[in-house]
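User: Fold this one for me? It's Pectinesterase.
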Amino acid sequence: MSGKIIISAVSLILVVGVAIGVVVAVNKKGDETHLQSQQKSVSVICQNTGYQKLCYDTLGSVKGLDTADPKAYIAVAVKATMDSVIKAFNMSDRLTVEHEKSDKGIKMALNDCRKLLQSAIRSLQLSTDMVRNKDVQAVHNQSADFKNWLSSVISYQQICMEGFDDENEGEKKIKEQLQTESLDQVQKLTAITLDIVCSLSHILEQFGFKFNLKPASRRLLSVDNQGYPTWFSAADRKLLGQLGRKDWRSRITPNVIVAQDGSGTVKTIAEAIAAYPIGFQGRFNIYVKAGVYEEYNIIPSEATNILMYGDGPEKTIITGRKNNADGDKTMETASFANTAIGFIAKGMTFENTAGPSGQQAVAFRNEGDMSALIECHFLGYQDTVFAQTHRQFYRNCVISGTVDFIFGISTTLIQHSVIVVRKPAQGQYNTITADGSAEQNMTTGIVIQDCNIVAEQALFPERFEIKSYLGRPWKNFSRTIVMESNIGDFIDPEGWILWAKKNNELTCYYAEYNNEGPGANVVGRVKWNGYRGVLSRDQASKFTAEKFLQAGPVSSTEWLKALRVPHSLGFAKP
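Assistant: Here's what I get for Pectinesterase.
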């Protein structure tokens, strides 16, 4: 198995090299004029990147590039990033073989790393295809997708490193080896490519392009509380338009029905996922009848556009109790996981019952791009919702937990939901969010909009003794915004708390806007450089669905509307 994966990775190098079409033509006569022109082009492209020397070395090392074509330099950056990820993948694959007799923690961390880096390769292949198949105007117009894919590569790289326990000498040593020999380079090269894409308008102007450099026209639709996100086809819109009706279940034809009593087509969710046909086109509907399903399932990346719906969150429950205290890595503790694009779940509960003593114990892990979770409950304690990567939308949900119970490195908007803070283990304090944005230009972050933040009944009598915070900055550029929400009195006046032994408060982006309730008073909030206080309406508009969840060459409103799930594109309040 190991050999096959290495072969496919090497093949990818060849495919990418051919697909991008970077022509390396060495001018034997040494055309100094061309060299000077190329150096000037590289200088323009690299000037706004965070790792300038590496950018110069990477783009300047390829001779014979068309100095008038900025896309050629973007192609070089993407290829260099792909090469670094494949190198890291092959290294993790080799280490997996070398440590097949090591302890469980090392084997799980390396296996997770391999899976994460495979996902990173898929994201980079999408970037490669876009650069290869589209002109520079189209690349610019679809920059929201480009930035999302690149941000996900850094997310996968970061989560790979987080899987190794620094308290375990064996795991720490392997992590340091991976970082030094490959993973640090992955982060830097991806960040360079991301910085270039974020500066593309300026770069194109410097190259003398005169066509329309504004992003493709976004039709600014009025805020519609019963409107729908726009990621999907006309057929999807017709189908998913039924979700807002009272009789919506009777209007959707399931491809598979799951029923434990045998009244459906299958008895387990695993069987339903396995029934997804290879190469299926359209929306695949899985109806999960009432019952408590204690199974651990992952929707694979190839099973795109699944709609999974139940009889309501009180009736259809997916449960598990895997946890870190029992030796499972955080990524492996999820009661349910999705890795496919276009996933929708409605009317279900995802829970992890490990309790506070289980430490990290994920109920729901999601890395599916353009996914939506509607009228679902997510119940757990620490790390309840692992919003791992890509663009995610949650609406009319209930999310409960204690420590970092909404976390990840994704672009996540939680709208019109109830966030329930529970009683933690003895000596712990509560933190609702932990975003892991590691580079400044990543499109990632957590936005909580139009939600109720409340204490559960068990916490209520001790809500002033047990500290509770809106979040803490997991990485250098952690980004979290709480807006238009009702914040309970139990949230500490400081609002936010430091991540131990780090200085992320200096560079994070934490902010609030138009909140209400006794916990919304910002007078006593932290005085960090990274805490931006109360935003203006114009500043806050950047974190509404219409702007924060941009996708495709048209707009974020396209995919949200196509999903046909209730949402607000703009502000929830006047």
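One thing worth pointing out: The chain has 15 helices and 26 strands.
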